[in-house]
Amino acid sequence: MAGWRQRWQEGNTPWNLGQAAPELATVLSSWRPVGRALVPGCGHGHEVSLLQDLGWDVVGLDVAPEALAAARQRDPRPHWHCGDVLNPPLVWQGTFALVLEHTCFCALPPRCRQTYAQAVTNLLESGGTFLGLFWCHSRADGPPFGSTPQDLKRCFGSALRLINLQEARHSVEDRCGEEWLGHWQKP
Q1: Cis omega (within 30 of 0) for bond into 143
Q2: Nearest to 61 by CA among 14, 129, 116, 142
Q3: Contact 82/101 with Cβ under 8 angstroms?
Q4: Spatial separation of the C-alpha atoms in residues 126 and 96, rounded to whole Å
Q5: What is the CATH number of the domain that holds 79?
Q6: What is the number of domains present in the chain?
Q7: Domain around 71
Q8: Cα(114)–Cα(157) distance, integer angstroms
Q9: pLDDT value of position 171
Q10: How many CB atoms lie within 10 A of CB 132?
Q11: Is residue 59 within a helix (H) or strand (E), and if so which, with residue range?
């Protein structure tokens, strides 16, 4: 956690696109808001603001208070919560219609991935959706830690039903060919 706080304090946030990820913006613009949404590891909160604009009741979650301060200054409308997605508030269990993933999974060491998948599953209501834009690359170190489509299927497939997993079509230039869009549903 201290490492993320230091990066925010130094303004060292190269993952920030300055906007919501184009792939997520494209997909979500055609969805009808159906309730409460969570964006774990929200950082500057661009996806949080996108969901807010689309009519969702959205919560942005991050471990770094500095990230949330920047997000709140940029957009005061959504709910912002400082905390760890691997240990979320118990009252959140089963209360989200959507968990939106973008750059949280790849920020976690691979040893934490199953814990993350379990947390996401627990946070979703029955029938809820897990939508993620994942960095699938083969570089040895991280963050961002890479994964493969097969890794994603294994990680989330035990508790969630895979709807679709495909290479992103609307990535920013320096991420083309490395982003995959995954869509799962909790039974």
Answers
A1: yes
A2: 116
A3: no
A4: 9
A5: 3.40.50.150
A6: 1
A7: 2-11+20-185
A8: 11
A9: 67
A10: 22
A11: strand 57-62
